[in-house]
């Protein structure tokens, strides 16, 4: 029996803009989130890797998500990142998200200690889920071994689903390895699986994926949504080739600073490009090159004229 | 001109015991810290890697350190771990430690995002130091690439010392690579350098190191202190061989659970062995094997009879 999907479609791990003082800028953040939903995103995943989520303090994360809800964004469309290395902090962030009505949370495994055992990771998630103790909690496992180093094996995913069938309902696979995504889709057909890049969107949908959660949705949501809406149509492969080409052009640059450079350019708001350490902004020449490369080769531009 | 050393000798990254409910147990923790100082530790570094420090929540860390100071431990002898991935949290923990009078802090670099630039890491530390904004702050850089993956290059260390000569005063090198420790000692003779293992204690002292900060000090502080006190004497090499042998015997097991198993055994307090996820306790047979191996081959035991 297939469960009714909680999340599906095109989900953006939202970039985090900063003010002059280096603190997260709630105004730019809320404005960007509204724009993403208008562009066609079905949901938002603040505090992912692209969001510099792990560079944000616990209080900063909770305040930003409250700003979104206060500003009228439906919390059912929010899947904030709440995984941290520390059990107590992960429980606190997750409880906060559930209490705000967030539709789900995207949880990294604890990533400081390397090569933890399957039993240790299972216990971590079990203790978070029991610590939150709320039936409304829906957990999406965040598998991103290139960054977190620690990830989710097939047996671990299976054990978590079996023990918490109403809570562990999905997974984002940012392994960049289609064979891994494919194996998860085959092994756990009821799981809401999101490849971490729109490069795998069409292949994913054809094999039961729920959509994608991808950094580049910050600037390409409309085109990606178009693939999602037309994946069974005659143009699907052609549309997919278009979004794949843009993704590849962007990821030739350092991804997060490049995305911010694009938004800063088209919003005519240089402050948008600011990064928090340990990241640094693209040098001006590189930022210009991202804009020019995408415009010249792909006719890429962003339109903020109707934005709030 | 050589600055007066702030820390030197034998420093323990203190194990963190838990209660039945899985929360840190302040009573066992304070008792263990007092015992370590009686055993000959010159200082304590709570919330290091051995402490499962990154598995502890921000509030848990601040509360535990307050317990130590409230219970009469001289904060000048404390060098808590305050590095986190998030700038805001690192500032908060560091400020809290300085306000309590801690002699120093041991700071990991932000370790989620891999391969950050030297400039990005420099900015991170600069922003923490400026964010704390207190002349009493003394930072010890925590280099542990086998776990954190992100570390401190020689040029980065040099840049931080040059920019913050009164603040960045030391480094713990847990690379496990003597050639790296040796290169740091040669390049920065005024830096208080602590190898992360007593295996390098004598070599370190002969080359200008300040002592060592080592996991096994939790159970071998007396013998390690003996090497520190007698490193210029005729027995130094023999004493060093003794502590090296015990270290190697312990590290044949998973280090942190093995240390807790030893303390649980000799305190006759099975609860001491508890680990927080993602770690798990040693299975009973392995725990017995640690105790037996060390007792049989090295005459090792722990005496808690005089402990409070």
Briefly summarize what is shown.
The structure is a homodimer of 308-residue chains. Chain A has helices spanning 26-39, 58-70, 87-99, 118-132, 145-148, 154-163, 178-187, 201-206, 217-229, 236-250, 255-267, 284-298; strands at 9-12, 43-44, 105-107, 139-143, 168-173, 192-195, 211-213.
**Poorly predicted spans of chain A:** none
Question: Which strand-content bin applies to the residues of chain A?
Answer: 5-15%
Give the terminus-to-terminus CA distance of chain A.
42 Å
Mean pLDDT across every amino acid position of chain A: 96
Q: Count every helix of chain A, treating DSSP H or I runs of 4 or more residues as helices.
A: 12
SS-based class of chain A: alpha/beta
Output the strand order for the largest sheet of chain A: 3-4-5-6
Biggest interface, and residues per chain?
Answer: A-B, 40 and 40 residues
Radius of gyration based on Cα positions of chain A: 18 Å
Shape of chain A: globular
Oligomer: homodimer
- Give the ordered list of helices and strands of chain A: EHEHHEHEHHEHEHEHHHH
Q: What's the total count of β strands of chain A?
A: 7
Can you summarize the main beta sheet of chain A? Answer: 4 strands, parallel
| Percentage of residues in helical conformation of chain A | 40-55%
């Amino acid at each position: 029996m297939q469960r009714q999907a909680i999340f599906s479609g095109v989900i953006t791990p939202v970039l985090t803009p900063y003010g002059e003082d280096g603190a997260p800028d709630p105004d730019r953040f809320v404005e960007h989130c509204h724009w993403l939903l208008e562009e066609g995103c079905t949901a938002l995943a603040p505090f992912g890797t692209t969001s510099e989520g792990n560079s944000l303090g616990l209080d900063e994360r909770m305040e930003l998500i409250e700003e979104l809800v206060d500003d009228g964004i439906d919390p059912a469309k929010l899947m904030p990142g709440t995984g941290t290395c520390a059990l107590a902090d992960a429980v606190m962030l997750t409880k906060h998200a559930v209490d705000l009505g967030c539709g789900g949370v995207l949880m990294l495994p604890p990533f400081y200690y390397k090569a933890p055992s399957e039993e240790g990771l299972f216990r971590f998630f079990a203790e978070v889920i029991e610590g939150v103790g709320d039936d409304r909690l829906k957990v999406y496992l965040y598998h991103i071994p290139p960054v977190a180093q620690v990830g989710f094996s097939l047996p671990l995913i299976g054990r978590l689903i079996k023990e918490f069938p109403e809570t562990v309902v999905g997974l984002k696979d940012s392994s960049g390895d289609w064979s891994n995504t494919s194996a998860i889709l085959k092994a756990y057909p009821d799981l809401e699986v999101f490849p971490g890049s729109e490069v795998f969107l069409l292949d994913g949908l054809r094999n039961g994926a729920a959509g994608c959660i991808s950094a580049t949705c910050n600037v390409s949501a409309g085109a990606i949504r178009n693939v999602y809406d037309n994946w069974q149509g005659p143009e699907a492969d052609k549309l997919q080739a278009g979004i794949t080409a843009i993704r590849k052009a962007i990821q030739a640059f350092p991804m997060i600073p490049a995305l911010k450079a694009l938004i800063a350019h088209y919003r005519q708001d240089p402050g948008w490009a600011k990064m928090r350490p340990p990241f640094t902004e693209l040098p001006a020449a590189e930022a210009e090159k991202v804009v020019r490369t995408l415009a010249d080769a792909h006719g890429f531009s962003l339109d903020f004229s109707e934005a709030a």
